[in-house]
Amino acid sequence: MLQKSESSWTGEKTTRRRRRRRWPWLLAAVLLAGGGYFYYAEGTAPQQAPALQTATVELGDIETNVTAIAKMQPKTYVDVGTQVSGQLRTIHPEVGDLVKKDDLLAEIDPTVYQTRVAGDRASLDNLRAQLAQAEAQLALDKLRNGRAQQLLKNQAGSRDAADAAMATERISEAKIDALKAQIAQTQATLDGDLANLGYTKIYAPMDGTVVSITAREGGTLNANQSAPIVLRIADLQTMTVTAQVAEGDIPRVTVGTPASFSTLGLPDRRWRGTVRQIEPTPTIVNDVVLYNVLIDVPNDDLMLMTDMTAQVFFRLGEAKGVPLVPTPAVRTARDGTQSVRVLTPQGPQERTVKTGLSNRSQTQILEGLEPGETVILGTGAAAAPRPGGGRPRMPPRLG
């Protein structure tokens, strides 16, 4: 076999090294070319416009309200107490019982007051007996005085005897006047003690329902320092709802404003009434100024009870069968003009409108739109850019 020379072997090795060095450069060039094409294709491809959020102008009903939380109490109630002190012997009704006016509710031990009445009557009888005696004495003194005056006139008696007889008559008359005054005083005391004796029986001052009993049988009531409360009677046929309205809303609520409310136990039932009174003195809770607004409502079925919590809606305005759009569709400029964006065959268009009633969800359109037209609320979120590049893209303008 022929042996290759050393020079030829050296040449082949050099050629192989050169070929190995070319491959990485060729691979890098191919990758750069592909990346450039991808960048151009991605940057020049048409982008999908964001989806429009729209709504149709429809005919409907709208209300504007002020909302408040309220508590309810009977419109008419009375705390029945006692005017005299003593041991409470008996309480006749129980909580929830219906009572009529002048029904006997409770009794206090009358022993002390019966004794006082008996003493007053005895004193009165004694004074009346003294009065009868004094009147008899006066009659005698008048006769003696008459004789003394006649004897003095006939010069058969002395002046001193005549003066003494006259003075005695006047003294008897004064005694009678004093006794009459004592009798009147004792009679007044007797009348007062009779009244106190009558107060030992407590009667209902009105028709109603016994809603609470605060005293207990056998307890001692002290009426000298304060009027002890025995029980409360309320007329549950009419309830008063006391709503606390924030100072920012109170200027829009007036006497006669229609109101409706529901309770926690019956959220699907609505009671209706009108504002009877707005109390001028506010209540401040956690630096929030609240005014009490009173509403009277009938309670014929007695479903409303004391201290129930209610959510009250004061109806400030109402319209039926009017064009309505979602409130977010209406835009207000700095000068107060209002407009909406309307979707037309030519594209979105800005249009000036005149609005009426408005709440958080809907706004009444008075001028500028017709039922069936489509308004633009906004646009959906644009697609996120793909990782690895892509030219920055701006969302298309809408009108």
Automatic annotation (TrEMBL):
One GO cellular component, as annotated: macrolide transmembrane transporter complex
GO BP term, pick one: xenobiotic detoxification by transmembrane export across the plasma membrane
Domain Multidrug resistance protein MdtA-like alpha-helical hairpin, first and last residues per copy: 124-200
Coiled coil: 117-144
Keyword Transmembrane helix annotated: yes
Residue span(s) of domain Multidrug resistance protein MdtA-like C-terminal permuted SH3: 324-378
TM stretches of this protein: 23-40
Keyword DNA damage: no
Region (Disordered): 378-399
Start and end residues of each Multidrug resistance protein MdtA-like barrel-sandwich hybrid domain: 78-231
Family: Belongs to the membrane fusion protein (MFP) (TC 8.A.1) family.
Protein known as: Secretion protein HlyD
Organism: Ancylobacter dichloromethanicus
